[in-house]
From TrEMBL:
GO process terms (BP): intracellular protein transmembrane transport; protein secretion; protein transport by the Sec complex
Subcellular location: Cell membrane
Family classification: Belongs to the SecG family.
Functional note: Involved in protein export. Participates in an early event of protein translocation.
A GO term, aspect molecular function: protein-transporting ATPase activity
Keyword check for Repeat: no
Descriptive protein name: Protein-export membrane protein SecG
Membrane-spanning parts: 6-26, 59-78
Length: 85
């Protein structure tokens, strides 16, 4: 596989790692968390979770899937590119 593929995956992995950390920190914890700083903790619907929390959950899962795909892609790239591994 070409080398640019690995560099692209590494750049995407670094970016998604940063985003995933940020998104996890934005979730509401038991004590309020950083999400209350941005208005996520103010509103709540009848279901017990606000629209902002649901969207935050969706974005977190989406970034987590991309992060996991990068890990698997890099593993496959290493297996194909480096003989004997």
């Amino acid at each position: 596989m070409p080398m640019w593929f690995a560099y692209t995956l590494i750049a995407l992995l670094v970016l998604t790692s940063f985003l995933l950390t940020l998104l996890i920190l934005l979730h509401r914890g038991k004590g309020g968390g950083m999400s209350s700083m941005f208005g996520g903790g103010v509103t709540s619907s009848l279901a017990g979770s606000s629209v902002a929390e649901k969207n935050l959950d969706r974005y977190t899962v989406l970034v987590g899937i991309v992060w996991f795909a990068c890990i698997v892609g890099l593993g496959l790239w290493l297996r194909v590119s480096v003989p004997g591994s």
